[in-house]
Specification:
613 residues; 4-stranded antiparallel β-sheet; 6-stranded mixed β-sheet; alpha/beta; elongated
Length: 613
């Protein structure tokens, strides 16, 4: 219905693929304003603050258990000594440490299970609120926004970006807190037990950070490219599946397959390189970790021989060194994931920050009779490219007015302006003498019904689709509307009648049946002003006759504006307006315009009698 803009931005692809267990290989999409977006995202998390605080307490308890366990192991080992060649065990201390260790492990298991549940609840509650806010905003955006932004991009923000946020909330919040507490607690305990071994442990940690930084640069390059190519593969597949009839009609299956194979091969090569680099990360980290263990064992052994530390302390440090390097890597990984999620949140908030369609109006409820006047209208979708120029038209209540002209002449634009899908650049449109800018959009559109060439039906029952015209209508009113539009008979022939559930877009009905349902919906809405936009252009002649009868009944006692290419459908119009280049070239009844032998005459002759004479 509304005008399209070919200069819409490309949809951002937000896929994240990488080798198992190597999250740091994810491509990082950086947000433009990290602080502001993160603060806003936290405000959504804060709406579930009770869950958040319980989760934080649980993670703190888990971290405490993980920090205590290595020390308990060390104390248990120190309870075993060799004196004068004889093994001696302090059984009370040994059993006490083992009991405490068992309790710590059991408590960690229970708390970890609780943490998983709390994280899932927090993330789903957060994205539930965000997704609802996003959808509520989307349905209130001006038509201009959806015309100038690719629908795939909008859907990507609704699905992929919100899902990225969900994953980050469920995985990163608890992990970051745990990692931070683990690093802090580990350093404190290590310093208390042995400052010298603590410094030795830092050597392997420094190597880990350096290796992580270097490898990330290389991996990020290939994984980012992998996502770009994956986006192309998905886009190519979507286009060809959606337009499969066209592909088959022109016998271009081989071409489509060839292009898909080319993109898939490019993805395969890039994926191998990315996976190879990603797979190297684990072995490299293990090697550095083993070097660290050797350094701790060597330094610890030297200190133990001098009596500076016990064997249990060495074992404790080996475990703590492993515990220390793991959260450092996790923090780096989580930072990359958080950056990507915040970038996605930024895209979501961009839609939320769009100005909604204003429903201003000072006239209040009006009793519409149907008189319409266009006064000196100028309008352009793009600045400097006017679509309507000095457009003037008077329509009396109950008149049937037809708009004809070449594609791009401004026919649909007239309708877009009347319904206030767009606002005029200059001039005014009045209904019964009231400027439409003074009428609330909701009130204005309740008095206008539109029947489009491409019918819009939802995956719901036929009854629900008809009720879209007026949700509070009674069953008898629904059936009466169907009888008026000649749809009742074919509905009754369906297995489930009015309860028949339609597939997507009404695919289980013929084009003519879908059009009759659209007309039925308009009949039920009982508008004062009716707009028919190419309502019969895509049906056969026989079906057109049925639809014409339905439209005649629908247009009775209503002001009607008809956009048509088939001139046979508008010969009985009160006024036929010929548009050319955004201006009215001529106007009058069918007979008057034929007598003039102007543009309409030439159009008519080209459709019915070959060349004009």
């Amino acid at each position: 219905m509304a005008a399209k803009n070919d200069n819409a931005p490309n949809p951002a692809m937000n896929f994240r693929k990488g080798p198992p267990g190597q999250r740091m290989a994810m491509p990082v999409e950086k947000p433009k304003n990290m602080r502001r977006t993160l603060k806003r995202l936290i405000s959504y998390i804060g709406r579930s603050r009770s869950i958040f605080f319980v989760l934080m307490a649980t993670m703190t308890a888990i971290t405490a258990c993980s920090l205590i366990s290595p020390s308990l192991q060390g104390f248990a080992i120190d309870a075993i000594t060799i004196t004068e060649g004889h093994l001696q065990i302090e059984f009370d201390k040994f059993l006490k440490m083992l009991t405490l260790l068992g309790v710590s492990y059991a408590l960690t298991s229970v708390l970890t299970y609780s943490q998983v549940l709390l994280s899932a609840k927090l993330s789903q509650t957060t994205v539930y609120t965000m997704r609802n806010d996003l959808f509520s905003k989307m349905v209130r955006l001006p038509i201009k926004y959806t015309d100038t932004h690719q629908h795939g991009d909008i859907m990507s923000r609704m699905t992929n970006d919100v899902e990225n946020i969900s994953n980050t909330v469920s995985q990163s919040i608890g992990s970051l807190l745990s990692s931070g507490l683990t690093v802090t607690g580990t350093v404190i305990i290590m310093l208390i037990r042995s400052p010298i071994l603590t410094l030795v442990s830092m050597t392997s940690i420094a190597l880990t950070l350096i290796a992580t930084n270097i490898m990330s640069k290389y991996m990020r390059k290939y994984f980012k490219r992998q996502q770009v190519i994956l986006g192309r593969v998905n886009g190519h597949a979507e286009e060809n599946i959606t337009g499969y009839k066209t592909v088959a009609a022109f016998s271009k299956e081989d071409k489509a397959c060839m292009e898909f194979r080319r993109l898939s091969d490019e993805l395969r090569i890039c994926g191998i390189k990315a996976a190879t680099l990603g797979g190297c990360m684990g072995p490299i980290m293990n090697t550095i970790g083993n070097i660290g263990f050797l350094l701790i064992a060597a330094a610890g052994g030297a200190l133990a021989l001098r009596g500076a530390i016990s064997v249990g302390t060495i074992q404790t440090f080996i475990i703590y060194a492993k515990q220390f390097s793991r959260p450092i890597s996790e923090i780096a990984n989580q930072f990359a994931q958080i950056q990507t999620a915040v970038a996605g949140a930024e895209r979501v908030f961009e839609i939320m920050d769009e100005n909604p369609e204003k429903d201003e109006g000072t006239a209040g409820n009006i009793d519409v009779k149907g008189a319409i006047s266009f006064e000196n209208i100028t309008f352009s979708y793009k600045e400097g490219e006017p679509v309507l120029r000095d457009f003037n038209l008077e329509i009396k209540p109950g008149e049937k007015v037809a708009l004809v002209g070449a594609t791009g002449s401004g026919k649909t634009t007239v309708v877009n302006l009347l319904t206030r899908f767009y606002d005029t650049d200059g001039g005014s449109i009045k209904i019964d003498g009231v400027d439409i800018n003074d009428i609330k959009k909701d009130e204005l559109r309740k008095n206008i019904a539109i029947v489009l060439q491409d019918t819009v039906l939802f995956s719901d029952s036929i009854r629900s689709n008809i009720l879209y015209g007026r949700l509070d209508a009674e069953e008898s009113e629904v059936k009466r509307a169907a009888q008026v539009s000649n749809a009742h008979s074919f509905i009754c022939r369906l297995p489930e009648g009015y309860d028949t559930v339609l597939t997507e877009g009404g695919g289980n009905l013929s084009q003519g049946e879908r059009q009759l349902l659209s007309i039925t919906r308009a009949v039920l809405a009982d508008p004062k002003i009716l707009i028919l936009d190419e309502a019969t252009s895509s049906v056969d002649t026989r079906t057109e006759l049925h639809i014409q009868k339905a439209m005649i009944a629908l247009m009775k006692n209503r002001t009607s504006i008809i956009i048509a290419h088939r001139l046979s459908t508008i010969q009985d119009a009160d006024i036929i307006v010929v548009l050319d280049g955004g201006r009215i070239k001529e106007a009058g009844s069918h007979d008057e315009l034929i007598e003039k032998r102007g543009s309409y005459y030439n159009l008519y002759k080209s459709q019915f009698a070959g060349n004009a004479t």
